[in-house]
Fold this sequence. Notes:
This protein is mostly beta strands. It contains no helices and 17 strands. It folds into two domains: 1-63 and 70-129, no CATH class; 145-237, no CATH class. It has strands at 3-7, 12-15, 19-24, 28-33, 37-47, 53-68, 72-82, 94-99, 104-109, 116-123, 127-142, 146-160, 164-177, 184-197, 208-210, 213-217, 223-236. The chain has a 17-stranded mixed sheet that branches. A hairpin with a 3-residue loop joins strand 4 and strand 5 (37-47).
Amino acid sequence: MKKRLTAIAIPVLCVAATVSVLNIFKSKTEIQQEADSVVIELTENIDVEGVEKITFNIPSGSAKFVSTDTQNLKLNIAVTASSEQDGKASEPSVTIERMEEGAVLTVEIDEDNSPQEWVVELPLSKEIELNLGAGSIDIAEVTAESRFNLGAGKINIDELSHTATVGVGAGKVTINSQLEDFNSLALNVGIGSTAIEGYDQVGTGSSRVIAPSVDYKGAGSYDLDVSIGTGKISLIH
């Protein structure tokens, strides 16, 4: 039998010399108690008008990003953790750091050992950096310069229309590009393969599997740089 609790907590603002840190126990926290684990659901809506770049640090789990035409960052996070001996769950907090002048916002949770599921809605124009230790990343659109770092797992980008840098230790990257051409295209795999479809100017045929490394200079406006230690890169136009 599940036990559902709802907790309301008060934000605490700490100001340092150059960085202000907003440590939030989410405005809405729901805890679902099960036999040997708890699922803690966190939600938050943050005004990011004036912020140029948002960085997300996630230890493990999954991250799904959806673009919106608002100036709000909406977070929905589910954390699965082991129950404590007294049957109570400790609530994780989300740490939000706004760098000097408010140009950079960093979001992370203090639960390093528990799998996390993030669903993020963010403005189209914001530059993002996502760091995930292990798991999966699903990006609906890349409409501003972005960087994705993944230790192990898979990354899927449904629509690429801007500059992106992707680094993966081991796994698979699939990118569906809306770009007709690139300013520069670099695909590098240590052990594995690279497949390109729909970019004849790169020197490959449709769905042809090519050598693990591609270094191409074109007439486009944006860059794509993807590196994998072990695995596969698929680029589709």
